[in-house]
Amino acid sequence: MDGLLAPGIKGLPNDARPREKLLARGPGALSDGELLALLLRTGISGKHVLQLAQELLDRFGGIGGLLHTGADALKQVKGLGPAKRAEVTAVLELARRALAQTLEERTIFESPQAVRDYLQLQLGGRPHEVFAVIFLDSQNRLIALEELFRGTLTQASVYPREIVLRALHHHAAAVVLAHNHPSGVAEPSRADIELTQILLKAMALVDVRVLDHFIVTRQRATSMAEQGLM
């Protein structure tokens, strides 16, 4: 059971308790570890909640890496029970839904950072390459995001016909392309540029605009349009 015989936040002095610190000084005053400890509430047997929180951050590469971590990876953490895994996963899903709602209600040009954050949450932490498409209506608001291709992405493995068919299915007026670089390098390769040109031509045949192509890592989402590559 989560928290069985485990030291929790209540065992800390008042000035060291994340909840009291947050209420007194605001969330910005807390470290990533303290915020995570507040979410977890208790540690595990023989390990204080703050120690557990810091170990999770170290293991998964910080708060961003942890939030990109799936429930299966969290199962590998000794002593981390289903309740705590569910809490971390729920926070990630809430963040995704909040960003998706923003993109559904506003045009992507009104909230470019939300687009980047949304793509990083969806793709940034994947251990393998994923090619996704954001389908947009005539006002450039989110209809859907779909992951269409996985694996080593090349011109031969990303099929323009499939993207065209999905765009027609959604009655999309425009799309934003995105794929991740598990290497952490957020710059487009020559192959990425060539693939983008192929997709631009394919989508033009059905009068669907390609607004951008993002290269996504845990730390960044690079816009090819902003770099003048489209």
From TrEMBL:
Keywords recorded for this protein, A-Z: Hydrolase, Metal-binding, Metalloprotease, Protease, Zinc
Pfam families tied to this protein: RadC, UPF0758_N
Domain MPN: 108-230
Keyword Hydrolase: yes
Similarity annotation: Belongs to the UPF0758 family.
The name this protein goes by in its record: DNA repair protein RadC
Organism: Hydrogenophaga laconesensis
